[in-house]
Write a structure and sequence with these properties.
Layout (H helix, E strand, L loop, with lengths): L5 H12 L3 H20 L4 E3 L3 E8 L2 E5 L2 E8 L2 E8 L1 H8 L14
Antiparallel strand pairs: 1-2, 2-5, 3-4
Length: 108
């Protein structure tokens, strides 16, 4: 298992649909831009059976610079995007053998 890039997804979609890689790349770029626009407007995005991209507030906290641990830095509340997987995706991932996944989420 490995990390799949946008280029590989474009190539696979091109093979599956018969559309050119340029056409698919344009669709993928537009799709990503639409998601970015909707999330930046405060909207959640839901794909049934896949999951939901939802906005959450990360609460304010105090951070520290590792080079100057005595100095505290206040980090204010901020909006973050959270992905909540759908049941079908959770089930598909849960069926993977655990010995193939490393601690950082990448497959061996």
């Amino acid at each position: 298992m490995a990390t799949i890039t946008k280029r590989e997804i474009v190539s696979d979609l091109s093979d599956a649909t018969g559309m050119t890689q340029t056409e698919i790349a344009n669709v993928v770029e537009r799709f990503i831009e639409l998601m970015r626009q909707q999330l930046s407007k405060g909207n959640d995005i839901t794909f049934r059976t896949f999951g939901t991209f939802e906005l959450r507030v990360a609460k304010a906290k105090v951070g520290r610079n590792p080079n100057r641990p005595q100095a505290e830095v206040k980090i204010p509340d901020r909006c973050v995007v959270r992905f909540k997987p759908g049941k079908e995706l959770k089930d598909a991932v849960a069926s993977l053998p655990t010995n193939q996944i490393t601690g950082n989420g990448a497959a061996q």
